[in-house]
Amino acid sequence: MIICKTPREIEIMREAGRIVALTHQELKKYIQPGITTKELDHIAETFIRKHGAIPSFKGYNGFRGSICTSVNEELVHGIPGDRVLREGDIISIDIGAKYNGYHGDSAWTYPVGKISEEAQKLLDVTEEALYRGLQEAKPGARLTNISHAIQTYVEAHNFSVVREYVGHGIGQDLHEDPQIPHYGPPNKGPRLKPGMVLCIEPMVNAGSRYVRTLEDNWTVVTVDGKLCAHFEHTIAITETGYEILTTL
């Protein structure tokens, strides 16, 4: 069941999203060669709590970190630890914050120092794919118009869309209906309505679309070991289009 939010609920989620966006902004200062993913996690948790929220991911289904830190061939759900970032890496950071009972959720993939042209293209295409999808987020439109726009743009640049992981609704629960694939034909699925709050989050591989989960039962990596990227915003469907909640 898709839960449409009231204006008051969206107001709370707007603040949750703002805290997520501020946390991303804070972490960007520290993403450089030599820092560990565990140090980034500590910075993020301290910052989120300082702003009156709690990390959405900490303890979620047993997850140990406050944020997800996925490096290079790691797509999503990377557990913060002793891994040291190196020049030329890329790191996807997924941040969730729960404020007054409601969640905000956003992921971004960042360069570590100077990165290769291929890596930069992957980041650029994945970020643009997110916004291509968001252009289709409007009341009355079918959900998979978002999916189709993302897939079409990504594949036009010879990258692959991951199919095992999808976007989702969000609210008092971190993951709510509907599930939102980032591939598929247009004009399918439910019609978008004002009050829906959705996480759109294309996950894109430089090589094949196939992924697998490591023995830690969390970290998802590309099967071919090639780079991948992940960009995500939480949005609210409005009377005329959409509003990004995870922004400043």
UniProtKB/TrEMBL annotation:
Cofactors that this protein relies on: Co(2+); Zn(2+); Mn(2+); Fe(2+)
Checking SUPFAM superfamilies in the record gives: Creatinase/aminopeptidase
Q: Which residues form the Peptidase M24 domain?
A: 11-239
Show the GO MF annotations. Answer: initiator methionyl aminopeptidase activity; metal ion binding; metalloaminopeptidase activity
Annotated substrate binding lies at H77, H175
What biological function has been recorded for the protein in this entry? Removes the N-terminal methionine from nascent proteins. The N-terminal methionine is often cleaved when the second residue in the primary sequence is small and uncharged (Met-Ala-, Cys, Gly, Pro, Ser, Thr, or Val). Requires deformylation of the N(alpha)-formylated initiator methionine before it can be hydrolyzed.
Q: What is this protein called?
A: Methionine aminopeptidase
Organism annotation: Thermolongibacillus altinsuensis
Q: What is the lineage of its organism?
A: Bacteria, Bacillati, Bacillota, Bacilli, Bacillales
